[in-house]
Amino acid sequence: MISFVGAGPGDVDLITIKGRKLLERADIVIYAGSLVSKEHLSFCKKGCKFYNSASMTLEEVINIMEDGINKGLNIVRLHTGDPTIYGAIKEQMDILDEKKISYEVIPGVSSFTAACSAIKKEFTLPEVSQTVILTRIEGRTSVPENEDLEKLASYGASMAIFLSVQQIDNVVEKLKDGYKRENVPIAVVYKATWEDEKIVLGTLENISEKVKEEGIKKTAQILVGDFISGDYERSKLYNPEFTHEYRRASK
After folding, report:
1. Rounded Cα–Cα distance for residues 143 and 207 (Å)
2. Coiled-coil region(s) at which residues (predicted)?
């Protein structure tokens, strides 16, 4: 069996129990070496073969998978965070489907939730935002025109921007154009949950300078929105005046 496993954002204990068990049983592990902590590999059994996909092509990855399956081996394709978000797993799964090779996908903790936890905030606050937008700025990988960062920012929703800190100036300008103001709170979280995690807080007015001062050029989440520091209404779920299926109002 081939298992696509989300390794989590960095801290090795943020992998799921199911993902850890699959690693322990694996005969072959193909891991995203540029982002996944190698400490995950210490949980593998003796004799397990490791392949760092950072230096491999899609075809080379598939060849190793196919060869392992033909030998009856257990294979883990270890992706950073959650494999379904910017994981490039679709192209792998399509080829496996063509070859009639079965596989499974095991979710993981994404860096966007890890980053929000690092700054001790909540994306969805009553009367502030009930929507979270996950996106990235255009780089070597294009973005559909109707998903331009400026247009998405105009909704005023909570945002988590992946793979974009290297273009922080461009990101900020597009966000300013979308939000139509410069006092929008923003957080840049470098390597969320890793030992060398850094958190930079600011607004659209000053975040670029702060990020540059910290030397952050990659491996960071950009979180934007009033959920970071705005006022909010108390949740009805635990309000004593609110009745729901499991509790009657007490006031």
Report:
1. 23
2. none
Query: Which strand (E) or helix (H) includes residue 106?
Result: strand 103-106
Please report whether residue 251 resides in a domain: no
**3-state secondary structure (DSSP) of residue 101:** coil
Q: Please give the span between the terminal C-alpha atoms of the chain, in angstroms, as a whole number.
A: 56
Split into its structural domains, the chain has a count of 2
Note whether 17 and 73 are same-domain residues: yes
More confident residue, 94 or 35: 94
Copy the structure tokens of residue 197: 């995690």
Cα 236 from Cα 213, distance rounded (Å)? 42
Last residue of a domain, one of 85, 106, 127: 106
55 in any annotated domain: yes
Helix (H) or strand (E) holding 199: strand 198-203
Q: How do residues 101-147 score in pLDDT, each as one tens digit?
A: 999 999 999 999 999 999 999 999 988 999 999 999 987 778 888 89
User: Does one domain contain both 220 and 141?
Assistant: yes
Provide the 3-class DSSP secondary structure of residue 225.
coil
Radius of gyration over every alpha carbon of the chain, rounded to an integer in angstroms: 21
Residue 20, domain extent: 2-106
Q: Domain holding 180: CATH number?
A: 3.30.950.10
| Residue partners of 28: CB distance under 8 A and separation at least 6 | 48, 49, 50, 51, 64, 65, 68, 73, 74, 75, 76
Tell me which residue of 116, 221, 114, 112 sits closest to 168, measured CA to CA. Answer: 221
Q: Are 115 and 100 within one domain? A: no
Q: 172-228 pLDDT, tens per residue?
A: 999 999 999 999 999 999 999 999 999 999 999 999 999 999 999 999 999 999 999
Residues 90 and 129 both lie in one domain: no
